[in-house]
Amino acid sequence: MISMKISDVSKMVDLPISTLRYYEKKGIIPETYMVRDENNYRAYDEQIIPFIMSLKSLLSAGFSIHEIKDILSRKELAREQQLEIIEEKMNEIEQLQKKLDDAKHFLQDSLQSAEDCTW
C-alpha cells in the first residue's frame, strides 16, 4: 500500500482538496481508503484514485451525491440492480432532454415571432 497525502490525491484526480473533504464529510469516500498516520494526518491508499475517477464519472453522468451515497450504501449490488439504476438514470436524462428541446423550440419560435413583428 502506497499512502498519499490529500494534496497528492487532489492533483492526481484533478479535484480541489475542499471537494475531497466534502466527499469525506458526506460519507462518499469510504474510510477503507483512509488511515490516520502518527501525526493524525489522513493518509490515502492508492486505490482511492480509481474510486474517485469512477465517482467523477457518475457525477458527470448526472448522478447526484445523494444517489451515489445510496448506491454505495448498498453493498454488493446485483448486476440486475446496477442495470436498473443505469436505465432509470438514462430515462431521467431523456426526459430532461425532451424538456430542454421543448424550451429551445419555444425560444426559437419566440425569436421568429419577434423578428416578424413590425413596430
- For the largest sheet, list the strands in their spatial order: 1-3-2
Class of secondary structure makeup: mainly alpha
Low-confidence stretches: none
Distance between the termini: 74 Å
* Largest sheet data: 3 strands, antiparallel
Give the helix proportion (percent range): 55-70%
Radius of gyration computed on alpha carbons: 21 Å
- Overall strand count: 3
What is the average per-residue confidence, as pLDDT, rounded to a whole number? 87
* Residue fraction in strands: 5-15%
Q: What letter string, H or E per element, gives the SSE order?
A: EHHEEHHH
Estimate the global geometry from the Cα principal axes. elongated
What is the oligomer described by this structure?
single chain
Q: How many helix segments?
A: 5
Protein name: MerR family transcriptional regulator
Organism: Paenibacillus cineris
Domain HTH merR-type: 1-74
Pfam family, one: MerR_1
Please name the defining characteristics of this protein.
single chain, 119 residues, mainly alpha, 5 helices, 65% helix, DNA-bd_dom_put_sf, transcription regulation
Plain-language structure description:
It is a single chain. The mean pLDDT is 87. The chain has a three-stranded antiparallel β-sheet. The chain has 119 residues and is mostly helical. The radius of gyration is 21 Å and the shape is elongated. The relative contact order is 0.09. It contains five helices and three strands; from the N terminus they run βααββααα.
